[in-house]
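Exam review. A common question shows you a sequence with its C-alpha cells and asks you to describe the fold in words. Practice with the pair below. Do the first one on your own.
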Amino acid sequence: MPENDEQWNDGHRAFLQAFMARSTLTFEEAKPLLAAILTAYEKKENLPEDITDADFNSFISAANTRISPFDLEIRSTFHQQSRNRIYALVNSTSDPIIQLATVHTADEISFLKRVLDAMFETYNTPRHEVMAITSMQAVRLHKPPDSERRETQNGIETQGSAGQGLKMVEAERMLKTLVDEGWFEKSKKGYYGLSPRALMELRGWLIETYNDFDDEDDEADEERIPRIKQCAACKEIVTMGQRCAKGSCPCRLHDICTQNFFRMQRSRDCPLCKTEWTGSDYVGERAAPKASQQGRRRTGGSNANTSRVTAEEPSHIQESDNGG
C-alpha cells in the first residue's frame, strides 16, 4: 500500500502505535484516543462523543490490512462477565507460548505452563470446573514437579531450563506481570484466570493441549468430555459461566448469554440433553469447593515439596467425582 494512500495515514499510524502500547482496547477507551488523533490530523476539534462505531471500525479495518502480512490481527470478543467488547492485538499464526518466551526466562515460562496446567487440569474436574487459581495455589507451583514433563506442540520441553524453578517472591512477581501484560485477570475474590485477550490468542493452543483424549487416564466416559468447552450461544470458550446440571452433558453458557439464549429457545431446558437448566450450576471460581473459597489449604513441608503438595491437593475432589 503506498505511503500516501488515503486509507493509511499518520492518524492510522498513531492509532496502531497506541493500540500496540495497550494490547487491548474497548470502544469507550478508544473514543478519546481517536478524538485526539483526528483533532491533530484534521486540524479541527473532535470530541470523544463525536466518535462513532463506524469511525472505530474503519481504523480497525485499516490497521488489520496493514499488519496482516506480519501475522498480526486485531480481534474482538465479549468479556465473559461485563459484556463489553474487547479488542486485542494477537499473533495469528505462531505458538503463543513461544511468543512469551521472547520476553520471559525459561523458568518463568515453565512456571506459567504449570499454572495453566493447574487451571485446566488440576482445578478443572467433572464436578468442579474452576479453571482459575488462587495466588497461594499458584505460588506453590514455583518449583517444577518430579512428574513427567509435558512437551509443547513442536516438541520443545516447557521445563527445558536449568530446572531450578522460581523463588516464591519471583512467582508472585510473575503473576503480577501476567496481569499487567494482559494475559491474566485477577478477580475480587483473588482468583487468577485468563483474560479475554489470552482466550483469543491461546484459543487454538488451549483446545489442542487440554482436549487431547489420548491420555491413558481417560477411563470414564464423563472424563472424556472436553476440558475446554464453548458457549452454546456465542461459541466462545467458557471459563466463567453456567453448566448443565447433568454431569455428563458438555453444554455450557456464559452468564451474559443465558437470557437471550433461553428467550429464543422459549424454554429453560438444556439444548443438548433437555435437562432443566438450573442457573445455579457454575463454571469458574463459583464452582470452587467451599473449603477452597474460604482459603483452607494444607501447609508445611520444604520448598522442594510445595509443587507435589499442590498437585495432590484436590484429590478429595477427584475422589468424590469418581464416587458419583
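Now try the second one, then compare your answer with the model answer below.
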Amino acid sequence: MPRSSELPAFVIVGGVSHTPIFFKALIAELEGRGYDAHAVSYPTVGKNTVGTKQKDEVKAVQNAVARYVDGQHQDVILLLHSYGGWPGSRAVIGFDKETRERQGKTNGIVEIVFLAAFLLPDNAPMAQYSYLPPWLTVRDGERIPNEQCVPLLFSDLEPADQRYWLTQFDWQRNDFEAETVPDAPWHLSMPKTYIVTTEDKTATPQFQLTMLQGVIDSTWTIKSLKAGHEPFLSQPANLVRVLLQPSSRCSSAYREWVVDFYAFASTELRRSSCRACLVVLGVSHEVLNVVISKCSATVGHERDLPTPLPLPYS
C-alpha cells in the first residue's frame, strides 16, 4: 500500500541491546497499512560506544523524530518498548505538537505509546526500577542478554526463533543508574497509551501497572495484548491491530482502581507470610486479566470498573 504523509509516522524505540532488525516485521506491517515507520539505532549499542550515555540515546530519538516533523512535515507517534521508555520519554519535551504549534510549527509528536515499557515519575532516580537481572551479562560497562533471558523475553516464540533472536542482541553501554528523568512528559496534555503484555514473564502485568500508577491521569489509555515481552516478534500483525485501535482515555474510576489496588496489594505483601504473598500475586493476576479484558472490550467507552476482589487466605 502506498504510504501517506497525512498519517502519522511511527518512531520505535527498543529495549536493551535491541537493534532495528528486531522491528523489521512490525515496520512491514505498519507500512502495509500506509504508515511510515522507523526503528531508532542506539548510539550506545554495538561498536565504538565508549563515552556514550543515555543523553546520546535521547538525541538519537529526537533526530529520528525531527526527520519526520521537520523534514517531511509529518506527525509522529512514539512507540517505546521496555527500556526504551526511559530515553524515549525524555525525548518528547520540545517535540510534542502542542509546544511546536506555539512556536509556529506545524507537526510534532501527537501520541506516546508504551509497550511493556518503563515509566518513572518526574525527577525519580532511574535506580528506582533499575536492577541487574541474571539474564544480563556485564562486561566493561556494557550489557547484553544471555541464555537465561530466553524463557523470559521469548516465552511465546518457537525454539528455533528463540535461538535466532538471542544471537541478534548486541552489547549496550548503560551508564545511567545515577541519572534521573527531569524531563518526563507526564504533564503534557497529549494522549498517552500503555499496552500491557499480559503473558509477559519479565515485566509482569503487575510490574507494568505498578509503574503506571505513579503517572496515570486522564490523558492515558490502557490497552492489552495477550503476548510475551516481544510481541513485535511473536505477533506483529496483532500488535499493529492493537496499536491502531481507537484510544479511550481512562475514566476516573479506572485510574483510582489502579492506584488503590496496588496500594492494597503492597500492604498485604508487607504484612503477610511468604505463602500468603503468593496468594496475593495469584489473585492480583486474575483480577488484572478481568479488568483489562473489560477495558479492551469497551474501547471508546468509559466504564466504571470493578473494585478489587477480597483476597482468600487459609
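Model answer, second protein: The first strand starts at residue 9 and ends at 13. The CA atoms of residues 217 and 232 lie 27 Å apart. Full marks require stating both points clearly.
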